[in-house]
Amino acid sequence: MQKETITILGCGWLGMPLAESLIAAGYPVKGSTTSEEKLEPMRERGIEPYLIRLDPEINGEDITDFLHSDTLIVNIPPLRRDDILEYHIEQFSSLIDALGQSPVRSVLFVSSTSVYPALGREVTEEDAVDPESPSGQALLYVEEMLMQESGFQTTVLRFGGLVGHDRNPLKYLARMEEIADADQPMNLIHRDDCIKIIMEIIRLQQWGEVFNACAPLHPQRGEYYARAAEAANVALPPLVPVSEPTPFKLVNSEKLVSALHYTFLHPDPLVG
C-alpha cells in the first residue's frame, strides 16, 4: 500500500534532509525551492522538484500539481522586511486560496518559539500572546489563519533555535566581542529531532494540534559558547552576565513528548 504523498514548501536547511528522510521511509515527496540551481540536486535525491515563490502571491510552475498531495509541510520563515506582518499575511492568504482548490487535507506549519514573549518563567502552548518581535507577530497571525480553515486540519510546530550539523556555535563565536546575557537560558533543538518529530506527527496523524519543540535541557548562553570554545580549543570572548533581572522564557515541550511518546535524540544541546 503506497503511503500518502507529502509536499514540502521550502526545501532548505531543514526541508531538504526532511524530504530525504521521508523518501527513505517510503513517502512520495514533492518539494519547492526558489532557486533554479537546486532543482537538479533535489531531483537526484528523489524529490519531485518545483520552482515556487510567494512574493507575496503564490506563483511558479504547475502549482496545481505541486499541491496535488495529501499533506503539506510549510517551512518558510517570515522575510526580514519593514512590512513583515502585512507581507507574511499576504503570502499565506494566497497559499490558503490555492489550498482551497487542492486535495490537501493536512497541513504542518513550522513556526517558532518567537511567538512567546519573555515572561520570566516556563511557557507552554497557551502563552503565545503579544509576541515582542515582528517575526513572532507574523508567525502567530499566520498560525491563527491556518488553524481557522475548515478545508484542512493544521498542526503548528513551534521550534526553538535550530542547531546541529553545520549550525555550529563557533560560527557565531567568531563574530562576538563579548557574550552578553551569559546567564540567560537558551531554547534550542537539533535538526535531527526536528525531522524525527515531523515524521512522528505524520505517522501518528496528530492533526489540529499546537506543539512546542525544544530540547528538555536549557543551557545558559555562557555555558553553551564556553563548551564550544573548549571543544575547538579557541579563545572565549568575555562573558557578560545581566546587570539586572532580564526577562527570559523556558519553553516547555511536555505536551509534544506526551502526545507522541517522544524521546529526544539530543536532549542536551551542548552534546552532538
Q: Structural class, from secondary structure content? A: alpha/beta
Approximate strand percentage? 15-25%
What value does the Rg take, in angstroms? 19 Å
CATH superfamily: NAD(P)-binding Rossmann-like Domain
Largest sheet: 8 strands, mixed
Average pLDDT for all residues = 93
N-to-C order of helices and strands: EHEHEEHEHEEHEEHEEHEHEEH
How many structural domains can be distinguished in the coordinates?
A: 1
Strand order of the largest sheet: 4-3-2-1-5-6-8-12
Record field, number of beta strands = 14
CATH architecture: 3-Layer(aba) Sandwich
In CATH, what is the class?
Alpha Beta
Any low-confidence stretches, pLDDT <50, length ≥5?
Answer: none
Report the end-to-end length measured between terminal Cα atoms: 36 Å
CATH topology: Rossmann fold
- Number of distinct helices: 9
In one word, what is the shape? Answer: globular
Helix content range: 25-40%
Give a concise summary.
The protein is an alpha/beta fold.
Tell me the layout of helices and strands.
Blueprint: E1 6-9, H1 15-24, E2 29-33, H2 39-44, E3 48-54, E4 58-60, H3 63-66, E5 71-74, H4 84-99, E6 106-112, E7 121-123, H5 134-148, E8 153-159, E9 161-163, H6 169-173, E10 179-180, E11 188-190, H7 191-204, E12 210-213, H8 221-232, E13 239-240, E14 249-251, H9 254-260
Helix pairs in contact: 4-5
Question: Can you tell me about this structure?
Answer:
- 33% of the residues lie in helices and 21% in strands.
- With 272 residues, it is α/β, with parallel strands linked by helices.
- The chain has one domain: NAD(P)-binding Rossmann-like Domain (Rossmann fold, 3-Layer(aba) Sandwich), CATH 3.40.50.720.
- The strands form four sheets. It has an eight-stranded mixed β-sheet, with helices on both faces. A two-stranded parallel ribbon has the order 7-14. A two-stranded parallel sheet has the order 9-11.
- Helix 4 packs parallel to helix 5.
